[in-house]
Amino acid sequence: MNRTVLRLACIAASLALVACEDIRPPRSAYKHDRVEVEREPPTAGATGGVPQDGQPAAKTAGFVPPDHDDIPEGPFGDMVRRGRDIFVDTGTHAPEFVGNGLSCGNCHIDAGLLPDSAPLWGAWGRYPAYRSKNQHVNNFQERLQGCFRYSMDGTPPEQGDEVLVALETYAFWMAQGVPVGAVMEGAGYAKDFEPPEPPDYARGEQVYAENCALCHGGNGEGQQVAGKYVFPPLWGGDSFNWGAGMHQLDNAAGFIRANMPLGRGNTLSDQQAWDVAMYMNAHERPQDPRYTGDLAETRAKFHDSPHSLYGLEVDGRLLGQGVQ
To answer: Nearest 5°: CA angle at 260, between 272 and 237?
Structure first.
């Protein structure tokens, strides 16, 4: 596919998104045929059968979420639709809680339906759960609050706010039939792979130029139509902050390999996915809201991971200082 065709594809997608057309992969895209390692289902005990952060329970494949055409009428369906609207266009439907140019649907593709882009149906049944990020058991609304705080660099709604209730209702509807406590195939990001070589900034820059810049801009600034982002900014002041999960190289590489370039997921190699994740995340973005005032201290406390570039020097630049 040459650059002219890619550019036309970007423009066409932009116009379709602005027109709010329902662009969705074929239903077969939601069913996975991967070989799986079966695990015993959770049993009552010290955790009450609730999965812990990083400790998956039973694993289930082949889930097909309901279609939006099947949202019921009545008050329940109205709340589901409200949650969907907030999810796909958060800045319009919950602007007071968003601090950048992103919506939930930027990291959870196809309105939270698509496998390997952290679909909502893969998350609902796993909460309450312990999260190492804040070191306590989180309910689902608290997990959503974290998305507003980090991914959307905003101020989260209080628990019980209609925005969180609507998003929770949307997730509940989408996950009907999902076993509670199960780790669904296609949930989260498929990040259980390593590159043949350590990720490289210069190689990533080339991958970005050839595969990403047409839609996301040469400087990661995203692309707007009629004042609204149709392709999100990947770094800079209008992107996710240093506390967001996408700043982790393994999360970014897993998302990129499965889903990018848009509509051509699984065409980049493992190495390319990691390299371009390195390039994307080696740019400055808004500060982690947990910043203590000291980069090294904040890294030691919240970013002690080989997958985080926070507080490190890459390409001659010290990262983590934040942009406004």
So the answer is: 95
pTM of the entire structure?
0.84
Q: How many domains does the chain have?
A: 2
Judge whether 310 lies within some domain.
yes
Burial 144-163 (b: 16+ CB within 10 A, else e): bbbbbbbbbbbebbeeebeb
**In terms of residue numbers, what domain contains 217?**
201-318
On whether the CB atoms of residues 285 and 241 are closer than 8 A, the answer is: yes
In the predicted structure, residue 97 carries a pLDDT above the cut 90? yes
Q: Determine contact, residues 320/311, Cβ cutoff 8 Å.
A: yes
- Rg value, the chain, Cα: 19
CA distance 119 to 135: 23
Which two structure tokens, joined as six digits, stand for 255? Answer: 């998302």
Longest CA–CA span in the chain (Å) reads 59
Backbone CA torsion sign across 6, 12, 14, 16:
negative
Q: Is the Cβ–Cβ distance between 193 and 270 less than 8 Å?
A: yes
CATH for 148: 1.10.760.10
Write out the two tokens for 164. Answer: 């969180």
What is the tens place of the pLDDT at every residue in 59-93?
455 789 999 999 999 999 999 999 999 999 999 99
The one-letter code for the residue type at 315 is D
Residue 162 has pLDDT above 70, yes or no: yes
- Where is the domain boundary, 184, 209, 232? 184
